[in-house]
Specification:
Radius of gyration: 38 Å
Distance between the termini: 62 Å
Largest sheet: 4 strands, antiparallel
Strand order of the largest sheet: 6-5-14-16
Helix content: 40-55%
Number of strands: 29
RNA sequence: GGGCGGUUAGCUCAGCUGGUUAGAGCGCCUGCCUUACAAGCAGGAGGUCGCAGGUUCGAGUCCUGCACUGCCCACCA
């Protein structure tokens, strides 16, 4: 194995090389398993990034977590499928191409649908792969052979099938309703795509004269805004005065006595000079404002509902671009805001404007372009959501799907309970066109799998497909089964569906996760009951399940170092590729993993990444140290096979010959148990930190230092140490691999010298803890030895012993076994504490200057340099204070009968032991204080 | 208007079901190029765990209130 690594750790070159290798060798491709396959299956669907996307930190966190989990499962023997793909992202992509066209002076509508779509495909072919290329740099171990695009033929076919089935089941309907309309995109968008923003605004009060009345206060009204009319008026308030042009009623509450006398009368709509009725409806609440409200059914959802109740006309006064249309009289053609100004001006001039008040309002904006949403009446397609949502809620309530962290479970359930019908049609070109055709003759609308040739109603042959396309989330909601071949019945579905896990950001819990659950539960009901598939797949015992996945893990948001949400407008976006360029993918991945405590957002701080690059460098140099020694002592030595993931004593070349061997083996098993445990519950930070502490703080700081003397001996014990080193290093690399795939691959491959049984460390076994390899005695002894070494280093520092000078020490051990243990590890002690001569004495040394006492031993550094008495006194006093505090609290508890009665035995036992040790320490410390003459 | 989270060392954060004297990294101070690593090694300083109550033998951890802060959801003119 004398494989020399370059002296400097340079992640860039290494990472690029292995990322290419993994793809070229198709290491993570998962063919449909053969008949009779019995290994457990792990399936994960990559949340498809938009084709227009550029990799950001959120993606990277998401992918790091997924890749960790995926690699971990693969190494534990699961058939592990991670399915990648991209989303056609209707609005986003169309916008991108439209902007491109704009620069050429072209417009989408002028170009026409077909040409435009062809243009989008061109764009997609050219730029659409960017985000997946960026993913490759992250090391994501996805199956590239199965890469999909949501507009692929097979997926589009599935989308049509789903649409038709839902329509046939009465779960899709079409109609004119108020939708969120984006005047910039000129399309409807769903509730979820509207972002609300609180802004200071105005509330205008307008009065509508009641037909056939006199204003009793006519004369007194002079002096108000404008010239008041001579009739009695009803005053209403609005934040969108331009919509008054489409008013078709005034509503008052039936219980509101102020207006009883006006029931059944009409008002004259100002500016439009249209008579509209006064209706009684609960829409008007007596407590609010004047208690009267204008009703504009075509521009407000509440008014729309009231309009339906009273059979009011619906007058749409705006066109798709947010300009007033022909229904707006002389305001036609004006932009809605210009119209607002003019309307207000005219109202005031004519005496109808009563007041203008400051008012805090929440306005909805299009999440993509920021244009203020116009609630607007239009014909759209909807999914009747309740039946789907009920089942989707149940799937989570029943535990068929788990959602972690737990609080998101309730959020999900609440949302499902308050859900509204989903508007799925978009007035875009780019997307899955709705499989519905309109007859030019009789206007009949037909939904069908293939284009019909003649009208089912009138027989006419002039049919045109409905121009609308489907909401992007409609198709992505189907991915868990459509990517596995649905609507055909496939072996892939039987094997890989339900997928195992979904890891995603909170942001798309409703957009995507909820929709997948609804669609999955609906369409995959009973899929596993297909006997033929079941038999062929060999998965007969698989739990029946229609859900798209069994577990959902919601990860945190990545913020900037100041905890601000990253956004382009703020200009605080951290580019992961730039971070990777500077610190390496491994260090960046490690940062994200180490900071990903469930439930809390991550403030990305590159200082941390810098620290983890240092960690990678540490590993690198430890490897160089290993190679140096192995090359010298045991060339040709390679790690064992590590079948089953354990560190096999003997088989894998590890021999627990010495204290440090027993200790490191025990510690390795502990860290292994902890890491496996942490990953099982998505505690990525814990997994990462445990490995970090083990590798650096135990393996490098202590184990490597401890075996150096053995390695230098050049005899059989040196070769044994070599064997241990290789076995441990190999195991540690496997443990770390899911988090830092590149550096572990590089070193592992070097260790294998091209003779490995498998093509990558990714295909080896993950370490599993073995309880039999835990060694409490070794851990206790090692702790004492470490304590002793640190104590001596401490004393040396206090005595200001020159770093290079070896000092003699005197030791007193309270117990014979401790003395024996120390004697047996004399070499280690002398080396690590820079000791030259060790002498045991028979009585306490604690009170001597240059000495330190613990409950187990006293150690005295023999050195003539005068102790700094004042500093020593200071330190001792502080320590004594601490000890006394400890004793006091221990005493308090141990003297408390309730405590003795109620606390668990081990707690009491530990406290007693601790109390006793503190007693010894206190005595020693006091004695020493006295000896030094401290006051 | 509802709901959820955060507040622990100078900074960034751990601390899972309450149990020894609350941890890490970075930064800071002191000393070292000790033959894997100065991207390193050794040692050190630094915290009344937001505030006030309560439950408990025992609270950073559970409960209540308050303060500050962030996020999500909501068709009130």
């Amino acid at each position: 194995m004398p494989h020399d690594l370059p002296k400097a750790y340079e992640p860039g070159e290494i990472e690029k090389r292995w990322a290419d290798y993994w793809i070229k060798e198709k290491l993570f491709s998962v063919p449909t398993p053969p008949e009779g396959e019995t290994r457990p299956v792990f399936t994960l669907l990559l949340p498809p990034p938009n084709v227009t996307g550029r990799l950001h930190m959120g993606h990277m966190l998401n992918q790091t977590q997924m890749d960790i989990i995926v690699r971990w499962h693969r190494m534990r023997g699961f058939i592990t499928l991670w399915l990648p793909g991209t989303d056609h992202a209707g609005i986003a992509t169309q916008m991108m191409v439209e902007k491109q066209l704009e620069r050429e002076g072209k417009k989408r509508r002028e170009m026409g649908r077909e040409k435009f779509i062809e243009r989008v495909w061109e764009w997609k072919r050219e730029y659409g792969g960017a985000i997946l290329d960026q993913m490759k740099r992250l090391g994501a171990s996805v199956d590239w052979d199965r890469e999909y695009f949501t507009m692929d033929d097979n997926l589009s076919h599935a989308v049509r099938e789903v649409f038709v089935r839902l329509y046939e089941q009465g779960l899709i309907y079409r109609g004119s309703y108020i939708v969120n309309w984006c005047p910039w995109h000129e399309t409807a968008i769903s509730d979820l795509e509207v972002k609300h923003e609180d802004v200071p605004g105005k509330l205008w009060e307008i009065r509508y004269p009641v037909v056939g009345t006199e204003n009793p206060h006519f004369s007194q009204n002079r002096g108000e805004m404008g010239h008041p009319p001579s009739q009695e008026c009803i005053t209403v308030a609005t934040t969108r005065p331009e919509t008054m042009l489409g008013d078709t009623a005034i509503a008052v509450n039936a219980k509101d006595e102020r207006y009883t006398h006006l029931h059944g009368k009409k008002v004259l709509l100002p500016l439009m000079n249209r008579e509209i009725p006064i209706i009684t409806d609960e829409l008007a609440q007596p407590e609010f404002g004047t208690g009267a409200v204008k009703v504009t059914p075509a521009h407000d959802p509440n008014d729309f509902a009231a309009g339906k109740r009273h059979n009011l006309p619906e007058i749409n006064v705006m066109d798709p671009r947010g300009r007033m249309n022909e229904n707006a009289g002389r305001f036609a053609g004006l932009d809605r805001y210009e119209a607002r100004k003019r309307v207000l001006h005219d109202l005031q001039e004519q005496g109808f404007l009563v007041a203008e008040k400051d008012y805090a309002l929440s306005i909805g904006k299009c999440e993509r372009c920021g244009t203020v949403i116009e609630p607007r009446l239009s014909e759209q397609w909807f999914i009747k959501i309740k039946p789907l949502a009920d089942r989707a809620r149940e799937a989570v309530e029943s535990g068929e799907i788990t959602i972690a962290p737990d609080n998101y479970r309730q959020i999900y359930i609440n949302w499902m309970n308050n859900i509204h019908d989903w508007c799925i049609s978009r007035q875009l070109y780019w997307g899955h066109q709705i499989p519905a055709w309109t007859c030019a003759g009789c206007s009949e609308v037909m939904v069908a799998r293939e284009a019909p040739t003649k009208c089912t109603k009138c027989g006419g042959a002039q049919l045109e497909q409905v121009p609308d396309v489907l909401d992007t989330w409609f198709s992505s909601g189907l991915l868990p089964f459509t990517t596995l071949g649905w609507p055909e019945k496939t072996l892939d579905q039987a094997v890989f569906y339900p997928t195992t896990l979904l890891i995603t950001a909170y942001e798309i819990l409703f957009f995507w996760v909820a929709r997948m659950i609804m669609f999955g539960c609906h369409f995959m009901q009973g899929h596993e009951q297909d006997a033929a598939i079941k038999k062929a797949s060999g998965y007969a015992g698989k739990k029946d399940d229609s859900v798209p996945f069994r577990h959902v893990y919601i990860h945190a948001l990545v913020r900037d170092a100041e905890r601000q949400k990253m956004s382009k407008t703020k200009g605080n976006v951290i580019d992961p590729l730039e971070i990777i360029e500077r610190f390496g993918t491994d260090a960046t991945r490690f940062t994200l993993a180490a900071m990903a405590a469930p439930g809390t957002d991550i403030a990305f701080n590159e200082n941390r990444t810098d620290g983890y690059r240092a960690f990678a460098n540490k590993i690198w140099n430890a490897a160089r140290f290993m190679f140096m020694n192995v090359g010298r002592l045991e060339p040709g030595l390679r790690p064992g096979t590590a079948e089953g993931g354990c560190l096999h004593i003997g088989v894998d070349g590890f021999q627990a010959a010495t204290l440090e061997d027993r200790w490191i083996l025990s510690r390795f098993n502990r860290v292994t148990a902890d890491v496996n445990d942490a990953l099982a519950t998505y505690r990525f930070h814990e997994a990462a930190n445990r490995i970090y502490d083990f590798f650096w703080g135990e393996f490098c700081d202590w184990y490597l230092e401890l075996i150096k003397p053995r390695l230098m001996a050049e005899d059989s014990s040196a070769r044994a140490a070599c064997g241990n080193l290789v076995a441990l290093f190999d195991a540690a690399l496997r443990l770390l691999h899911p988090v830092m795939p590149f550096i572990t691959e590089e070193i592992w491959q070097a260790m294998q010298e091209g003779k490995a049984a498998v093509k990558s460390i990714a295909l080896t076994s993950y370490p599993q803890a073995d309880e039999k390899q835990l060694d409490l005695a070794a851990e206790t002894d090692m702790a004492i030895l470490q304590d002793l070494i640190v104590s001596i280093r401490n004393l040396r520092a206090e005595l200001k012993v020159e770093p290079k000078v070896k000092v003699p020490i005197e030791l007193f051990a309270h117990e014979r076994e401790v003395r024996t243990m120390i004697e047996q590890n004399r070499g280690a002690l002398e080396r690590l504490a820079n000791v030259e001569k060790m002498t045991f004495v028979e009585s306490s040394l604690a009170k001597l200057a240059g000495a330190r006492g613990t409950a187990r031993f006293d150690v005295h550094v023999v050195y003539e340099r005068k102790v700094d008495v004042a500093a020593e006194c200071e330190r001792l006093k502080k320590e004594l204070e601490k000890i006394e505090k400890g004793i006091a609290s221990g005493e308090r508890q141990l003297g408390n009968e309730q405590f003795l009665a109620k606390a668990p035995a081990n707690v009491v036992e530990n406290l007693r032991k601790q109390r006793q040790e503190l007693g010894v320490l206190k005595e020693k410390t006091e004695e020493k204080l006295k000896e030094l003459g401290c006051r």
